[in-house]
Amino acid sequence: MSAGTPTGKKIVATTSLAGCFGCHMSFLDIDERLLDLIELVEFNKSPLDDIKTFTKDCDIGLIEGGCCNDENVHVLMEFRRRCKTLVALGECAIMGGLPAMRNTISLQECLDEAYRLGPTVADSNPGRIIPCDPDIPRILNRVYPCHEVVQIDYFLPGCPPNADLIWDALTSLLAGKELALEYRTFKYD
Amino acid sequence: MAFVRFMLDGQEYLAEEGAQLVAAAKDCGVYIPTLCNYPGVRPKGACRICTVLVNGIPHTACTTKVVEDMSVVTSTPELEAFRKSIVEILFAEGNHLCPICERSGNCELQALAYRYRMTVPQFPYLFPKRDVEAWHPKLIKDHNRCILCKRCIRGIFNEEGQAIFAFGKRGDRLIINIDPETSKDISDELAQQAMDICPVGAILRKGKGFDVPIGRRTYDQQPIGSEVAP
Hints:
CATH architecture of chain A: 3-Layer(aba) Sandwich
CATH superfamily of chain A: NADH:ubiquinone oxidoreductase-like, 20kDa subunit
Shape of chain A: elongated
Low-confidence stretches of chain A: none
Order of helices and strands of chain B: EEHEEEHHEEHEEHHE
Largest sheet of chain A: 5 strands, parallel
Shape of chain B: globular
Strand content of chain B: 15-25%
CATH class of chain A: Alpha Beta
Strand content of chain A: 15-25%
Oligomer: heterodimer
């Protein structure tokens, strides 16, 4: 697998699976260091530059969110194929997070509550139809942490991970150094 | 009061004979991590986090008394890895969703996980189905977060000396219940004590909100144990 640009820049891809984009927002919270970052890296598939499909192999893939449907699994597996190093970013990617609160409830019960029996269903879904269209990703039986689906190389906790933690980890990875994980920025909330 | 000599991490110290090893080590400025131990409550040795080597053999430091000539080692790579794996088991075994927990930042389990820089447990998450009891008049019991350390059972009693918490069920369904009778008229102070004695966010006082901002909570700046050994 070859990655990197002719100018020696590393290539980074990011995605949000079953997440809220909070981790991406925290990433943008590195503020003016973004200017330093674009000197070091080029972005490929990412919501930040709106590139929808991989155009080349990447050095680092940042994954926000766990897997709640088959599209998430597909994207995650593609990231594993195209990225040398995968980083699970945030609580949802690491343990499923808030979406995983449904893991103790059966899928049938979840769908019934959302589309058939819930208090707001009467107005919004008079036919009590559970969506089942080939264009809509199929929901999984439960929410899976990323490392239960593919090999993940690094984990950055937080909800969202602190911007300084993301910056420190990213610059360490780009420099080929061990991640420091400073106490002040290493938090689960 | 008799004092005895004992070795702690290669240094000789004096301690009161029969003192609890965790407390004696603390007086010597040596931190032994604990979770089910609580000052003033009879130790149980339930969580095993405080495991140290006493004369080369693993012992729980909360249930071990200091005796003459004992030699204690509190930290080896194996002990630290063992402690970290206990924290990981507890995280994988319950539903510990730190971002939505009222106790986050003040939680001893979370603080130990920070201390050991746990990024993800080495064990698979079990996602057990557990209840939240919000119908008690003074307290909330969130079984998702309970680590069964028994601190509440051992340390909290009402004005008549009756227990408020008790074990229910068995095996992997074991839970700690709130007694609806003895807990219904407890004072706000006792409800607060019950909330404080819980190392995690499994016991909450009703009507109590978040009142300490992020950044100023107990373990936001300094790891647990810093108060003993900076």
